[in-house]
Structure formats: C-alpha cells, structure tokens
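For the sake of transparency, this paper describes our internal protein records without simplification. The tokens are whole numbers drawn from a learned vocabulary of local backbone shapes. One such record is reproduced below, unchanged from the form in which we store it.

. . .
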Amino acid sequence: MKYVFFDIECACVYKSVAKICAFGYVVTDDRFNVLVREDILMNPKGKFHLTDRKGKEGLTLPYEYEDFKKYPLFHAEYAKIRALLEDKNAIVLGHATMNDVNYLNLETKRYKLPSFRFCFYDTQFFYMNVVGEFGRQFGLGAIADELGVEFTPHRAVDDAYATMRVCRALCEREGTDVLGLSERYRVRPGRIGGYKIEAGDSKGHKQYLREREQEKQRRTKAHIEFFRYVNKYMHKRKKGGELDGKTFCFSRDIEDDVTVSVKLVAAIFASGGKYTSHPAECDVYIARERGGSRYDNAVEKGADFIPLEKFSSALNE
C-alpha cells in the first residue's frame, strides 16, 4: 500500500470554471518514505485571476506566470493524473480535498474527458476529528505551524509535501497509520465518480451537526419567546420613566438567553424605555463585549454601548 498526496493550483476559479495550472503530488510508502515528488505544470488556457478564500485579490503563486504558456494543456496530463489517483494500491489524500477534487471535475467537463473515479481522505478533516473541532476550517499553514512543519505556500508540490508531513505527524501523535486514523475516528472517505462528488464524513462530525441543529432549534425557540414578551408588554411600559425616550437593543446572544433578556427588557419597560431588534435604530446597545456586526451597526448610527454587566448592575441599583 502507498499514499498519494496531491494539491492543485488554479489560474482562476469561478463557480463553474477552475483552470488548473499546477498539479503537485508526493507518493510515499505506508511509512511515509517519499518515492516520487513532482510538480506537473499546465497551460491553464486563460488569464490568471487569483483571489483568496474571501474573494479578495492579491494572492500570488510562486511561479512565473508567462512560463505556463509553454506547458501542455490539462488534457495532455489527464491520463497521468488519472493513473495516480485511481491506482488501486494507493490511498489518496489532500488538504481541503473537496476543493481540489472539484477543480479536477470541472476541468474534465471543460475538456470533455471521462470523470475521475476514486476515494480520497482529507488531512484537514482528520485534524478536525483529532482535535474535536468542527466549527471552523483549519488552513494547511495553521496546522503545519502547530505540528512544526515548514513549507512554501501555494507551490503545489510543496503543499502536497506539507500535507504529507502533516498527515505523518498526526499519525505519529496518534500512534497509528492513515487507515488507523480512519477507523479510530470512524472517518468515511469522500468519493468522486460519474462527475458526482460525495464529501467524506465521520462519527464526530455527524454528532457535531446534530448538536448544532439542536442549538439552532433552541435559539429559535428562545428568540420567539423573547419577542413574544416584547410584543406583549412594550406598549404597557411605564410612561414618563427615567428611560422614557430611549430605545434599547441587545446582542443576539443576550436576546436568545431568555433567563437574562426577559428580565432586562422588563426592567427597561418598567422605566419607560423601548426595545428594537434593529441595532441601527437604538440609542443604547447592550452586549457582553464590543464587536460584531450588530455592535458596528449600532455604534455607527450613534448608539451608546453599555456592557451587560454594567447595565445589569445599574438596573439592580
């Protein structure tokens, strides 16, 4: 058994277009001894338009862009890449692999080539399972730093090599190999075939999704309960109280904590104040701390910010 680690760089990526310019790969044995390491460069047949994950321009690849014109097109390298990824004796891995598999899928459609057909693992997903954190994406650089791996970002073969070293470090820390990681965390690999891509999954990720959905339902229920109270009692607020003429708004997490929010808004109504769910319309914004889009909207419109702790103390006094 051997491992094939791969990474892809594109000249541009749009919703239905991904013009591949570099396919980097590293082949190792099952003990991570490097057998082959290569950067396959291709003419993307298009201009370079590079953006980061947030869509901002400025991303630079460590290549001379003009040189790509002398390399063959994707379809000329298709057979070699397919043989690597569909090797029955190989386990295929990448980092955020769904992205790269999608790029391959788009290029096969662009050049009217047969679909790739292979299974793949994702070192990012392995890491998320190992640390038990599914709420955010972990970049290759961040994981590499944490595991003490150095590399040159965005050179495809170097990213593939860094992915291999990250995988090796995870396996060493867990005292197992890739299949051992898969079994321990019940990770199912992703798949591509017939131009259809299926993401990998795991027991931990499924549990995370269940808990996230339960929390979403809890927040929705709390949100409804809070605004039912607001709509019922705001018109009954005290007239001429010391907060008369002031409109308040809470951060979303306070609104959804009805054990706190209902008591606070009741005290506001008892002093003549009003409540709004629109931060741009309030005079006073209450949150546990500064920051967030609601805070920004309120402050930009001239609202005063009062920390929850300070506001609660003032009401009690």
